[in-house]
Amino acid sequence: MSTDYSNNAEESPEPRKAEVKGCIPSWLQARCWQWPRHLLSGDTSYSHWFDGMAIMNSFAIKDGRLPFSTHTVPDFTDNGASNFIKYGNDFYATSETNYIRKIDPVTLETLDKVDYLKYLPVNLASSHPHYDKEGNAYNMGTSIAEKGKTKYTLFKVPAVTEKELFREVGPRSEGLRGGLHGPCRSLLTPSYYHSFGMTDNYFIFIEQAV
Protein backbone atom coordinates (compact mmCIF):
# COMPACT_ATOMS: atom_id res chain seq x y z
CA MET A 1 0.00 0.00 0.00
CA SER A 2 1.60 3.25 -1.13
CA THR A 3 -0.11 5.47 1.46
CA ASP A 4 -0.42 4.81 5.17
CA TYR A 5 -3.83 6.35 5.88
CA SER A 6 -3.55 5.56 9.59
CA ASN A 7 -0.86 8.22 9.97
CA ASN A 8 -2.20 11.02 7.82
CA ALA A 9 -5.91 10.87 8.64
CA GLU A 10 -7.47 14.31 8.55
CA GLU A 11 -10.90 15.02 9.99
CA SER A 12 -13.27 16.66 7.53
CA PRO A 13 -16.85 16.92 8.83
CA GLU A 14 -17.85 19.01 5.82
CA PRO A 15 -18.15 16.89 2.64
CA ARG A 16 -15.29 17.19 0.18
CA LYS A 17 -15.32 16.24 -3.47
CA ALA A 18 -13.29 13.14 -4.23
CA GLU A 19 -11.31 12.86 -7.45
CA VAL A 20 -13.01 10.36 -9.72
CA LYS A 21 -11.00 8.52 -12.34
CA GLY A 22 -13.28 7.13 -15.00
CA CYS A 23 -17.05 7.47 -14.95
CA ILE A 24 -19.59 6.62 -12.26
CA PRO A 25 -22.96 5.66 -13.82
CA SER A 26 -25.61 8.31 -13.14
CA TRP A 27 -28.07 5.64 -11.99
CA LEU A 28 -25.75 4.44 -9.23
CA GLN A 29 -26.73 5.94 -5.88
CA ALA A 30 -25.38 4.62 -2.60
CA ARG A 31 -23.77 5.56 0.67
CA CYS A 32 -21.01 3.52 2.25
CA TRP A 33 -18.99 3.83 5.41
CA GLN A 34 -15.42 2.82 6.15
CA TRP A 35 -13.39 2.36 9.32
CA PRO A 36 -9.73 3.40 9.24
CA ARG A 37 -7.97 4.21 12.49
CA HIS A 38 -5.78 7.15 13.38
CA LEU A 39 -2.62 5.81 15.02
CA LEU A 40 -1.06 9.19 15.71
CA SER A 41 -2.40 11.74 18.22
CA GLY A 42 -0.02 14.61 18.78
CA ASP A 43 3.24 13.10 20.01
CA THR A 44 1.55 9.83 20.92
CA SER A 45 1.56 6.87 18.54
CA TYR A 46 -0.11 3.46 18.68
CA SER A 47 1.29 0.25 17.28
CA HIS A 48 -1.76 -2.02 17.46
CA TRP A 49 -4.45 -1.66 14.80
CA PHE A 50 -7.25 -1.65 17.39
CA ASP A 51 -5.66 0.98 19.65
CA GLY A 52 -5.98 3.99 17.37
CA MET A 53 -8.80 6.51 17.41
CA ALA A 54 -11.73 5.52 15.22
CA ILE A 55 -12.25 7.72 12.19
CA MET A 56 -15.51 7.32 10.31
CA ASN A 57 -15.46 7.79 6.54
CA SER A 58 -18.66 8.35 4.59
CA PHE A 59 -18.85 8.16 0.80
CA ALA A 60 -22.04 9.30 -0.96
CA ILE A 61 -22.35 8.21 -4.58
CA LYS A 62 -24.90 10.29 -6.47
CA ASP A 63 -25.21 11.81 -9.97
CA GLY A 64 -21.75 10.60 -10.93
CA ARG A 65 -20.08 12.40 -8.03
CA LEU A 66 -18.38 11.08 -4.90
CA PRO A 67 -18.35 13.52 -1.97
CA PHE A 68 -16.82 12.17 1.21
CA SER A 69 -16.43 13.27 4.81
CA THR A 70 -14.56 12.03 7.87
CA HIS A 71 -15.26 12.33 11.57
CA THR A 72 -13.49 11.11 14.71
CA VAL A 73 -15.28 9.21 17.46
CA PRO A 74 -14.32 11.28 20.54
CA ASP A 75 -13.72 8.55 23.08
CA PHE A 76 -10.39 6.85 23.78
CA THR A 77 -11.81 4.10 25.96
CA ASP A 78 -14.89 3.09 23.95
CA ASN A 79 -14.29 4.69 20.60
CA GLY A 80 -16.26 2.31 18.40
CA ALA A 81 -13.40 1.42 16.09
CA SER A 82 -14.70 -1.90 14.76
CA ASN A 83 -17.90 -1.54 12.77
CA PHE A 84 -21.14 0.28 11.99
CA ILE A 85 -24.32 -1.47 13.05
CA LYS A 86 -27.96 -0.71 12.29
CA TYR A 87 -30.55 -1.20 14.99
CA GLY A 88 -34.07 -0.28 13.88
CA ASN A 89 -33.74 2.99 11.97
CA ASP A 90 -30.58 4.07 13.80
CA PHE A 91 -26.86 3.61 13.16
CA TYR A 92 -24.19 3.03 15.77
CA ALA A 93 -20.40 2.89 15.92
CA THR A 94 -19.28 -0.14 17.88
CA SER A 95 -16.25 -1.88 19.30
CA GLU A 96 -16.48 -5.00 21.47
CA THR A 97 -17.36 -3.42 24.81
CA ASN A 98 -20.81 -2.79 26.27
CA TYR A 99 -20.82 0.74 24.81
CA ILE A 100 -22.03 1.77 21.37
CA ARG A 101 -22.22 5.30 19.98
CA LYS A 102 -25.21 6.52 18.01
CA ILE A 103 -24.24 8.48 14.90
CA ASP A 104 -25.90 10.51 12.18
CA PRO A 105 -25.28 8.39 9.05
CA VAL A 106 -25.20 11.46 6.79
CA THR A 107 -23.13 13.99 8.75
CA LEU A 108 -21.30 11.40 10.92
CA GLU A 109 -22.05 13.53 13.97
CA THR A 110 -21.65 11.51 17.17
CA LEU A 111 -24.78 11.46 19.32
CA ASP A 112 -25.83 9.39 22.35
CA LYS A 113 -23.46 6.94 24.01
CA VAL A 114 -25.48 3.81 24.81
CA ASP A 115 -24.61 1.29 27.52
CA TYR A 116 -25.90 -2.20 26.76
CA LEU A 117 -25.78 -3.01 30.48
CA LYS A 118 -28.73 -0.73 31.13
CA TYR A 119 -30.86 -3.00 28.97
CA LEU A 120 -29.18 -6.42 28.86
CA PRO A 121 -26.69 -8.35 31.03
CA VAL A 122 -23.76 -8.08 28.60
CA ASN A 123 -20.32 -6.68 29.42
CA LEU A 124 -18.95 -7.52 25.99
CA ALA A 125 -20.73 -7.73 22.63
CA SER A 126 -19.93 -8.81 19.09
CA SER A 127 -19.11 -6.10 16.55
CA HIS A 128 -20.95 -7.94 13.79
CA PRO A 129 -24.65 -8.60 14.28
CA HIS A 130 -26.67 -10.52 11.69
CA TYR A 131 -29.94 -9.53 10.04
CA ASP A 132 -32.87 -11.63 8.88
CA LYS A 133 -35.04 -10.97 5.81
CA GLU A 134 -37.31 -8.64 7.80
CA GLY A 135 -34.38 -6.52 8.97
CA ASN A 136 -34.36 -7.71 12.58
CA ALA A 137 -30.88 -7.65 14.10
CA TYR A 138 -29.38 -10.48 16.16
CA ASN A 139 -26.30 -10.02 18.28
CA MET A 140 -24.41 -11.87 20.98
CA GLY A 141 -22.78 -10.71 24.20
CA THR A 142 -20.99 -12.09 27.25
CA SER A 143 -22.03 -11.46 30.85
CA ILE A 144 -19.20 -11.57 33.38
CA ALA A 145 -20.81 -9.42 36.09
CA GLU A 146 -22.22 -12.18 38.27
CA LYS A 147 -19.64 -14.31 40.09
CA GLY A 148 -19.86 -17.92 39.01
CA LYS A 149 -22.57 -17.19 36.44
CA THR A 150 -20.59 -16.21 33.38
CA LYS A 151 -22.79 -16.73 30.34
CA TYR A 152 -23.40 -15.89 26.70
CA THR A 153 -26.53 -14.01 25.69
CA LEU A 154 -28.11 -13.89 22.24
CA PHE A 155 -30.42 -10.91 21.80
CA LYS A 156 -32.70 -9.52 19.13
CA VAL A 157 -33.39 -5.93 18.07
CA PRO A 158 -36.59 -5.68 15.97
CA ALA A 159 -36.43 -3.81 12.68
CA VAL A 160 -39.47 -1.74 13.60
CA THR A 161 -40.41 -0.45 17.04
CA GLU A 162 -43.13 1.89 18.23
CA LYS A 163 -40.75 3.80 20.48
CA GLU A 164 -37.21 5.08 20.08
CA LEU A 165 -34.58 2.48 20.92
CA PHE A 166 -32.55 2.73 24.13
CA ARG A 167 -34.82 5.24 25.85
CA GLU A 168 -36.73 3.16 28.38
CA VAL A 169 -34.20 1.61 30.74
CA GLY A 170 -34.66 -1.98 31.84
CA PRO A 171 -34.69 -5.55 30.53
CA ARG A 172 -38.12 -5.05 28.99
CA SER A 173 -37.28 -1.77 27.26
CA GLU A 174 -38.71 -1.20 23.82
CA GLY A 175 -36.72 -2.91 21.11
CA LEU A 176 -34.39 -5.28 22.94
CA ARG A 177 -35.24 -8.91 23.41
CA GLY A 178 -32.80 -11.17 25.22
CA GLY A 179 -33.87 -14.67 24.27
CA LEU A 180 -31.14 -17.31 24.56
CA HIS A 181 -28.61 -17.78 27.34
CA GLY A 182 -25.83 -20.32 27.58
CA PRO A 183 -23.26 -20.89 30.35
CA CYS A 184 -19.57 -20.58 29.57
CA ARG A 185 -17.65 -23.84 29.70
CA SER A 186 -15.10 -22.07 31.89
CA LEU A 187 -16.70 -19.55 34.23
CA LEU A 188 -13.37 -17.76 34.81
CA THR A 189 -12.15 -17.64 31.21
CA PRO A 190 -15.03 -17.06 28.77
CA SER A 191 -14.36 -17.38 25.06
CA TYR A 192 -13.21 -14.45 22.98
CA TYR A 193 -15.20 -13.97 19.78
CA HIS A 194 -15.38 -11.14 17.28
CA SER A 195 -18.40 -12.53 15.46
CA PHE A 196 -20.68 -15.54 15.16
CA GLY A 197 -22.71 -17.24 12.45
CA MET A 198 -26.38 -17.37 11.56
CA THR A 199 -28.37 -19.39 9.02
CA ASP A 200 -32.12 -19.59 8.43
CA ASN A 201 -32.39 -22.25 11.12
CA TYR A 202 -29.33 -22.01 13.36
CA PHE A 203 -27.02 -19.69 15.25
CA ILE A 204 -23.40 -20.83 15.05
CA PHE A 205 -21.00 -20.06 17.88
CA ILE A 206 -17.55 -21.56 18.39
CA GLU A 207 -16.47 -21.45 22.01
CA GLN A 208 -12.71 -21.25 21.76
CA ALA A 209 -9.90 -20.47 24.13
CA VAL A 210 -8.69 -16.89 24.49
UniProtKB/TrEMBL annotation:
Its cofactor is Fe(2+). Fe cation binds at H128, H194. Keywords: Iron, Metal-binding. Binds 1 Fe(2+) ion per subunit. Coiled coil: none annotated. InterPro entries: Carotenoid_Oase (IPR004294). One of its GO terms (molecular function) is metal ion binding. Pfam families: RPE65. One of its GO terms (biological process) is carotene catabolic process. The keyword Metal-binding applies. Belongs to the carotenoid oxygenase family. This is Uncharacterized protein. It comes from Dissostichus mawsoni (Antarctic cod). The lineage of its organism: Eukaryota, Metazoa, Chordata, Craniata, Vertebrata.
